[in-house]
Amino acid sequence: MDINIGIPNDQRQAIADGLSRLLADTYTLYLKTHNYHWNVTGPMFNTLHLMFETQYNELALAVDLVAERIRALGYPAPGTYAAYSKLSSIKEEEGVPKAQDMIRNLVEGQEAVVRTARSIFPLVDAASDEPTADLLTQRMQIHEKNAWMLRSMLE
């Protein structure tokens, strides 16, 4: 059945493509944050263990919101590690970094998600796609706050 929500197919496709990159970044950051939660050590163990848990739980909910918006626009949401690896601006790493490096890596990851979300706005604005704009605004606000909180631990 055709989708008629007031956004032409080509604009919906472009927005869904952008959201697919956002989904890939979000899922990759989720996995990295969860990995760090399991493997963090050192004097800040308890603080970081709990902070990372809070963040990966929020990311787990976020991937569903992004994927469902892609589906509402009429396109399949990517859902494999292979797809995420191609789409994500966040790279995986080998080994287990020290706690301070984990924090730095997560700041970079949080900021990468913000940049990806921000890059979709011109498409969303041109299509008057307010639901996606609302989703992007919420995601950016959360990731900017997380980056700030993590960054403050490095000072």
Automatic annotation (TrEMBL):
Residues 17-155 form the Ferritin/DPS domain. PROSITE patterns: DPS_1, DPS_2. Pfam families: Ferritin (PF00210). Keywords: DNA-binding. One of its GO terms (molecular function) is DNA binding. SUPFAM superfamilies: Ferritin-like (SSF47240). Belongs to the Dps family. This is Starvation-inducible DNA-binding protein. It comes from Thiothrix caldifontis.
